[in-house]
Amino acid sequence: MDKLEQYRQFVKEILTEHAQLSTPTNTVKAELIFDEKHDHYQLTYVGWQGNKRVFGPVMHCDIKDDKIWIQYNGTEESVAQRLVEMGVPNSDIVIGFHSAFKRQFTLYAVG
Predict the structure, then answer these.
(1) Is residue 111 part of a domain?
(2) What's the gap between Cα 8 and its chain centre?
């Protein structure tokens, strides 16, 4: 399996596990969005809680320039650390929700 296909599998595995751990109700569902053509991957909650609309991302990752970009992480898990444990080198992980200036101080790639 080539590197990008392996990265896609790792990201989908993490998002799928979190979707299964979520506690959706009859009116709020966890939705997995996998756009392999453009390399966008997201876990989102969609539905209604009483009269209140529930819609929002839980996690969002992209793969661009041969790196996994963590664009949003609304969980307590360190997705970057999990990816490292799966075998992804730090140099192939970008914490995309930090500015480029702040990224230089992380253990991961700047971009």
Answers:
(1) no
(2) 11
Q: What is the mean pLDDT of residues 64-90?
A: 96
Q: Rounded to an integer, what distance in angstroms lies between the CA atom of residue 10 and that of residue 88?
A: 9
Alpha-helix residue ranges (DSSP H) falling in the chain? 3-21, 79-85, 100-103
Whether the pLDDT of residue 82 is over 70: the answer is yes
Residues whose CB is less than 8 angstroms from the CB of residue 111 and which lie 6 or more positions away in sequence, other chains included: 65, 67, 94, 100, 103
Domain carrying residue 48? 3-103
- Overall pTM > 0.90: yes
pLDDT at 1: 75
Phi, psi of 87 (to 5 degrees): 115, 5
Token pair in block for residue 74: 């609304």
The CATH number covering residue 72 comes to 3.30.310.110
The amino acid that residue 50 corresponds to is: G
What does the pLDDT read at residue 24?
Answer: 64
Strands 67-73 vs 93-95: parallel, antiparallel or unpaired: parallel
Residue 25 has pLDDT above 90, yes or no: no
